[in-house]
Amino acid sequence: MDEVDLYSELGAVRSQLVEVLSLEAAGVLQQLCSLLNAEEQEEVNRAADRKGRVSLIVDLFRDKDTGTCRQFIETVCMICNGLPMQLETRLMSAAGDGNPNETPPTEYPSSAQDDPSHPFQEIPRRRPATESVPATETKHPRIDFAEKYKSSMMKMLLLRYEKIPEDPLKRGTLDKTFISIVKKNVTKLRERIDRTRDEPCVSQDSEDGTGTMVKISDLLEPSTTSDSRVIVLLGKAGTGKTMLMHSICHQWAKGTFSQLQFTFLFEFRQLNLVKRKLTLRQLLFNFFLLPEEEQDVVFEFISSNTRGVCLIFDGYDEFLGKFSPARSDICRDPLKPLSVAELFSGLYTGSILKGCTLLVTCRPKDVLDLPLSAVDRVGEVLGFDHRRVEEYALHFFRDSHYKEQAVAYLMDNRNILNMCYVPALCFISCVCLDDLLSTGSSRPLLPSTMTQFYMNMLTAFLRKKEAISSSVATEPLLLQKYRQEINGLCHLAMKGLEKSNIVFYTRDVPESVMRFASENGFLTAFEVKKEDGTKDLGCAFAHLTMQEFFAALHLVTSNSITESQLKKKFNLKSKWISRNDPKSVFTDMFHIFVSGLSSRECTQFLSRLARHDLPWVEKRQKVILEILKKLAASNLTGPKIIELCHCTYETQDLELAKLIGASLRYELRNFRLTPVDMIALVFVMNTGGLSVCLDIAGCSMERDCLEVLASCKTIDTLIFRSRKYNDRFAEALSAVLPKIGSLKRFEFVGGHITELGATKLAVAIPHCHHLEEINFNDNFLTDEGISEIANSFPNMKNLYKMTLDNNAATVDGTLSLVKAMSTCSNIEEIRVLGTKTAEVIFTRGSGILPDSSSGEATRCSLNRKLSLVKCSITSQHVGKLCEILQRCSGLSEVDLSGNDLQDDGCKVLIDCLPKLNISKQIILSNNHVSVKGLCSLSHSLNVCPNVVEVEVRHKSPKTAVIRFAGSSAGGTSDSDAKGGDSGGNTLKQNLKVSKKLRLTSCNIQPRHLEKLFQTVKLCSDLEVLDLSDNALGDQGLARLVKHLPGLQGIRVINVSNNQVTMDSILCLAGSLCTCKNICEVDMSSGGGKNLFIKFQRSPVSGAPRTCSEEHKNGQRFSKRFSLRESDINARNMDRLCRRLMQCEGLAELDFSDSVLDDKSIEKLLSHLPQLQPLKLLNISNSRISTDGALLLVQSLLHCERVRAVELRPKGEAFIKFVKIKADQATCKLNEYNLDKKNIEKLSWILEQCSHLSEVDLGTEEKSLIRFIQGEERIGAVRSILQGDGPSVSERVKAGPCAAVPRHISLKECSFGLEHLVKLAGILERSPNLVTLDLSYNTLEKEGLPALQNALANLKSLRSLLIRNNGMTFEAVVDLVRELNSCPDVLTVRIEEPWIQSEGAVGLVSTCIRLNSNIMEIRVHKNTVHITMENPNLPTTGNTDSAVHRDLGSRASVYAGSPVRLISLIHCGLQDHNLPLLAFLGKHCLQLQELDLSHSSIGSTGAVTLSQILPSLGRLKKLSLESTQTTAYEMVQLAAGLSRCLSLESLNLSHNKIGDAGATAVADLLPGMSRLRQINISRCSTVSSTGGLVVVQALCKCTALEEINLDALQLDPRGITCLAEALSSMTSAKKLILSEVNTSAEGGVYLVDSLKGCTRIEELDLGNNQIGDKGALKLVQHIPGWKNLRKISLSQNSIGDASGRKLADALSNCRLIEEICLANNSIGDEAAVKLADVLPIITHLKVLSLQANRITPHGGSKLAQMLPTCKQLEEISLSQNTMGREGAIHLADALPRMKSLKRLDLKLINISDNDSIHLAACLGHCPTIEEVNLSWNNIGDDAALKIAEILPRMNRLKGLDLECNNITELGVKKLAERLWNCSAVKVLRLWKNQIPKEVAQALQDKDSRLNFSSI
User: Fold this and answer.
1) Beta strand spans in 1018-1101 (E)
2) pTM for the whole thing?
3) Cis amide leading into 957 (omega within 30)
4) How far apart are CA 268 and CA 370, in angstroms?
5) Which is deepest, 279, 759, 1066, 1864, by most CB within 10 Å?
6) For the residues 1226-1242, what does the mean pLDDT come to?
7) pLDDT tens by residue, 261-298
8) Backbone angles phi, psi at 1681, to 5 degrees
9) CA 670 to CA 1205: how far, in whole Å?
10) Coil, strand or helix: which one is 362?
11) CA 421 to CA 321: how far, in whole Å?
12) CA-wise closest residue to 1028 among 1041, 1037, 1018, 1019
């Protein structure tokens, strides 16, 4: 070769040569480098990396002379171990192969061998390059032997494949393959494999959508990024993986894959036969092809040229071993014998034969065992598609005269065509079709299941071999002829599966079976290489599925298989659980075939094969079906669902399919779906009959899968979620969607559709006529895509909701949605939140929207809303937006908050307002509007007549709202509720529109007021002006007061939080006097916080009244001055009172929550007589000393108009006045610790007050003893108790009242004998005493008779309370005896610690015997309640009372006591105490109610009760709740209950009556004709069997009104029976059925049975899995339940859409009081609808929505409407993401909720700042008792606010602040203010940031502080 050719050739192979040399040992590189000079070597050493050095070496030799270059090439060829043969041949040819020794190679420098720091030094990879190469190991001989071996391999393979005769059945060759391969994303597959590696039975599929179709040659291309050459090829059974591997070998042998020097094929099914350890050399040579000569040389060549070696391991799923990580010793000694598993693992990880190409095939589920970190490429064999099926069929029938007919039949039959997508099934389908067509049939009928195909295949194979027609060789004849051989083959198949054998030695197969199977194509024989290298003859089934089919036949037909063995072997659950069990890895199709053999179509076939009659076969088939039915109740995931559907489809049993179809949850995740899978799935769904939700996420599927979906008639919801679902997928789906006629909800989320896919779908979805909801969240829709979808809106009349969250739209796309609102009449609401949220809400069936020119009628026609929040709308977009809005009729709300309108954009909008038709409000919050821009917003009140309110708040949470005349918010707001007038807020026709301007937290200063008031004065209809939280100060307030006369029509001015001082307070007090129309000035904290100025309105026009109007009408309105939470010193009090003395009509003066020292009180008292109009002085919760309190009591003497003085240091305190002079007065001085001096002073005051009628000293009544003891006080006390003062006597004579009632309460006193005698004397002279309370006193025993005597003679006494006074049993009995002569109705309550168990029973029995007036006696814990009635009293119209008195009057007829109620609850009653109640049967024959709940009656008690009950003929109600009654005791009780024929109510709840007890109760029920109430709840030991017996009995009790079966165990049969019972109970009023059902189907059935319960008042279906289907059933029933008051549906998996419909239905229940929807999946949609419904259900008291999915949007809407429920007492919104927005709206609503008692806001995700406003508003809830704010982010700021308002919450009992961020600062302030809150029982502070020592110290001071989790 000439010089040019040498250099050009070296340049051509340069990159490949550099790649090869980079992998060589350091010694090799050093030897090449030694050919260079010293300067060049130094240059090489300076190179940065190894590859750079190699590149430089090659380039340097390319610049050398020809001889040196040739020497370089020859050296490379001689010493390089990994030089590919092709490259070596090209290099040697270029260098001149005939002269290899022209230039001898250079010796290695010794330094390169020994110096570890040398840059080229490296551990040898195969063989040290520095070793001398013997002459016998030169490269050329190695190449020659390797070439010979390669040639032998190719010849062997060609001979093997070309000698194989074509199977007449298969009619195919290796050259004609029809397999499609898709390349996978390895990285994503690795990540998902790692996530699912520990999950059993997970079928794998790629989550990415980047799979591309490739050729096998593409997969085998050398890797350019890594040394790894591991290729994994996945494929389901029957897709042709094995055929493809043989095809690769065949093609390689023909020279196709030239990059591969050697290709070895190993089948795991044959390697399973290898038991001993092998070396790699033995594996390659003994089990593939043994070299004819020089094995060592050939193996060395293979080891040195690994990049040209390809090893194929086929069928890893069939491998009995398991991948095991390679050990380190394998790397050191690659020739060490290893097991097959270790060899494979070493090859896989590159520890052995590194650099070779390893191709592994397996099924998708088995890839979990392989570490994909070593994998270079992953492919998947897809099988056939529509085109491939047709190609295969044409090839199969190529020689048949009916080819066209056969192909047309396959392609036209959809079910058959879908099965043909699996190549193995396609082959069998063709065989069966060929068999049918060969008989001349023009319309062949192929089977519909895979099992039946294999059955037909069996007879078809036999007929083909016989070469006779099917008319002659019928199935019965063929089975009869070959039965023995077939059974032998079946036995062989089962034996192989049990032992995990796929390959059999022919010597182990009976000769007749072998001959039969091989001749008919069932078994294939082949050569098997043994461990020692010898050969043997083996065989295997033609396909693994064929082995599984014959094994299934054996299982069903063999006499050796019992039914129990059949159940054990056919166990899908154990298969799913034992994924790694080697005995189950070969049974993918086995269970499907067994299921298919249970089909009726197979019965005759099995009977003939088994030689048994039909009943024998049917019995075994029934066993299989029963096993499958049990799986219906299992909670299955994707692959298991598909496998169960396959099994069900194979059975073709409609009953089974219906059961399973109604039970499954169709959620399919991340595995490949085939058309065959979809056929089975659709079959089950259709047969199930129920509407289903099909949720497919990340599952790869072909277009044909979607086409199968079109045949499903039950899909209610269809969901696709995965990035792999792109525009092409959307296009295919668009052709299918209109065909799914039942589709109501469609979701395409997390996909990859753009405007192209959106266009296709937008065309399709209008043809889905029942579609209600569409979700396109998280895609790549741009403005064009959004526009395309929006254009389709007018054609979707049933659509309710469209969601487009997280797409790629800009402002233009958003405006296209708004534009659709102007053209589409059924759009109700559009919500857009940046790019995160985009929702369109529709109304169904709405007509054409009226034209906007129609005025008011148009505005009221719809309640449409538009929310465009954080959409980047600027002033440039406002004009276009307004143009669109002008065409949108019926708008009620537009939300533009969070944009960037600024002042200019707002001005444009304000100018357009008159042209817009908006009925409620425009929200402009967070739009960067300055203080200057406020004037523009305020000017809207003048520009647009319909604007009624402008509200702006610049402080967080920032707000800017313009409200219109149609807004309910226009009448009342939080400020009004807090500060005053709650008057009318309804706009009436023909009246002026009242307007409001609220500019809060806007930093308005005095200099801004002039311009602002220019706008204000122009608005004559302005009623509310809110300037709170600004910077006006005293100067600004003075300017405002000057403007007051010019404000016409104003009602309220709010200037709170404006940094004013006492000067402003005096200024306002003066304005109250001078400005005649001001009716109230309300301030707190010295005016620094709340400051309201309120005006009196005219009752006609709403304008403020003038003085002339007042005088003309002869009326004066009252005025009020309030200065709360202030520290008022004497000087300021004097100045203030002097101003107020000039105020005409001042009726109320409020100093509550203030600090008043004694001097201030003296000043106040000095001015009281001059405050003539005053009616009330309020000093509640004020800090007043004891002396100050006594000063206030003196007002009784100093001011004759004082009617009542009521004082306490904490709580309500006041002085009330009358107009002229009080006839009588009362004095209440509670909770003051009066010492002796104070008592003397108080006594003196009371003696001076001659008109005093009542004195109450509360719990500090030790002072009253001094009155009793002191003779000088006896007159005063008598006057107080008897009311015989002169003024009272005059009133008794003159007034219509007969007497004035009196109440005495004596607590914590120590009464001696003398005291009790005197007290008795006083009581005897107190004829008007009604109530006497003696609690916690010490009563001298000897003085009790006198007291008892006095009490017995008190004819007016109605209530006697005696608690913990140390009275003994005898003393109580004596008292009850003395009270026998009860004149009317007397209630006695006695509490003593000994009233327990025996003492309680003894007291009850004794009292009943001694007092014949006792009608009711109850014992609860340590307290006995006794009600006594005089039976001779005349009736008062009360029917029930009249009956009882009538019964009492006829005592002669009924012997014994007239007692009608006895109750012993929670009093420690034991079974041995029950005999004491034996008297009931003799003395209490009038007893109607007996309650022994929460006791332990035991067997003795049960016997006693069973004996007593028959005597109680009038007993109507019996309660034995939680009495520890067992089954045995219940049976005993039943004997007595059977004779209680008058019983109307029976309570046996919370007992352990068991099934025997349940049966005893069930036997009783039909005989109790009067029974109306039954409670068997929480009977834990009653099984589903016992539950069934009970509900069967209830079927006969159709008159029941109340049923409580809470937590009664019921199986599906029990639920069915209960539903039947309920359907006939038309009188039912109360049904408690929580936790009785566990299945979705049962829940729906249960709900459906309630249709006829039209009288229902209370319904509890909590935790019953009714789901959306059950909820929708309820929606149908609820409108007919007009009396419904309570409904609980908690824990029922109710979704948002169903929740919305429920809320809508509840609007028909106008009497509803309680709604519980907790622990569901209700979201904003339902919350918004519920908000719309709240104003209708005005009786609502309890609303529970905790643990749902309500976000700030839904929470805000709900909160705004809560105040419309005036009776609402309890709200729970815990565990919802209310967030800041929701908390703000809820806070604003709280002051208007006047009945609220309990508020639960646990875990609602609110911050400390958000909580401040919420806490402030809580202070305006007068009735609140319990508040839960735990598990939020509340810090010290909110805690300080809570501490501030605590004293105002007079009724608060519990506050929960657990798990927040409160520190020591906040908790100390809370503890300080808690001292003023006597009603609070507990304040929970666990898990806050409080040191333990601080917490302990605080808790020691006040035990109500709870820092623990208990």
Assistant:
1) 1022-1026, 1052-1054, 1078-1084, 1091-1095
2) 0.60
3) yes
4) 15
5) 759
6) 81
7) 899 999 888 888 888 888 888 888 888 888 888 888 88
8) -95, 75
9) 78
10) strand
11) 31
12) 1037
